[in-house]
Amino acid sequence: MPYFDHCATTPIHPDVLEKMYTVSKNHFGNPSSTHSSGRKSRAIIEEARCQIASAINASPSEIIFTGGGSEANNMVLWTLTQTEKKHVITSAIEHPAVLKVLNHLEPLGITYSIIPVNNHGRVNADNLKNAIRSDTGLISIMMANNEVGSIQPIISLIKIAKSVGIPFHSDTVQALGKIALSVQEVEADYLSFSAHKLYGPKGVGFLYKRKDAPLHPLVIGGGQESNFRAGTENVPGIAGMGEAVRLASENLTKRKEHVENLESTFITQLNQACDKVIINGCPNHHLPGVISASFPGNRSDILLAKLERENMEVSSGSACGSGSIQPSAVLEAIGMPEEQNISTIRISFGRENTEEDVIRLAKTLGSITRG
To answer: 90, 129, 85: which is closest to 113 by C-alpha?
Structure first.
């Protein structure tokens, strides 16, 4: 069954799976133990830390392993409860692992401002400047959106934050493995990542924390991860993530060109097959291979069901439940009318997709939207 939902998760890479199996089978020692088995597990963790640091041009000491991107986001946001300045600026299209956390932290004294995005899903620098207050302690804006694929002008936004001494955090879960990312260029204080978005395992991620950036642990205990994240480390998961990041870094150009070619072929075929289709997002600044498409007059949940009957898997930004469909908050934020909102699907290509796959998808969409 062709899978076109790589923004949701990715199939694990065979090399990653092999790495995890080998580590699970041969290196069971607790990394905190001082005997040989423990030291071997510790060495595997540090090898992965170095692989990841190298991929984003960071120092290994700036990499903190977590249980995923959501935990990494939480670590940064909860830190605000321990700082003097408790106001956060974020955007209207952030992941729930940012927006819901901020809402949850309000009773603890955290306040936040949500700045709008344009109809392409991008933040305007002037809106960010105007939202800054004397008590602003953090700016948190994602690098690339998970629904429409828009890429933010992140470097210019970080420069604004730096000019007034405000720490900057970015949820970069969707970016790593799809576009080039170096902390020497993207000079954020914190970046959140997840392994399963780039052909790695689920349940493991990491936080990049620039040296001297404040951070308070969510989990307290044994003092692992330099006292930032207690608990015995997931050695196979970390090893698999290190391998996944290494492969993504080494094959970035090849993978990027592959999905860009698939995207170009798909859109050409889709426009030929469909009488009415709207491509959303930012045409010049979006993740390669990520397409948000609206099919007016066709509910997205019905489209997804019809595609699955044809053995093709895509996703919708809308939430379905009890026979009803709720509009996507991200699509609302870019000013999309409700009728178009609930007729929108997300397609995201990956390394295993072929030209034949995407042509068939386009033709099938043409058939089911006309019928």
So the answer is: 90
Cα 57 to chain centroid distance, Å, stands at 19
Q: What is the sign, positive or negative, of the torsion defined by CA atoms of 320, 357, 289, 70?
A: positive
How many other CB atoms sit within 10 Å of the CB of residue 134?
7
CB 336 within 8 A of CB 344: yes
- One CATH from 1.10.3080.10, 3.40.640.10, 2.102.10.10, 3.60.15.10 for 14-250: 3.40.640.10
DSSP class of residue 297?
Answer: T
What is the amino acid identity at position 305? A
Question: What pLDDT, on a 0 to 100 scale, did the predictor assign at position 1?
Answer: 84
Within 8 A by CB and 6+ apart from 167, the residues are 137, 138, 139, 161, 189, 190, 213, 214
Q: Catalytic residue at 50?
A: no
Q: pTM score, two decimals? A: 0.95
User: Of residues 7, 50, 282, 320, which has the active-site annotation?
Assistant: 320
C-alpha radius of gyration, the chain, whole number: 21
Q: What is the pLDDT of residues 313-362, one digit of tens each?
A: 999 975 544 355 789 999 999 999 999 999 999 999 999 999 999 999 99
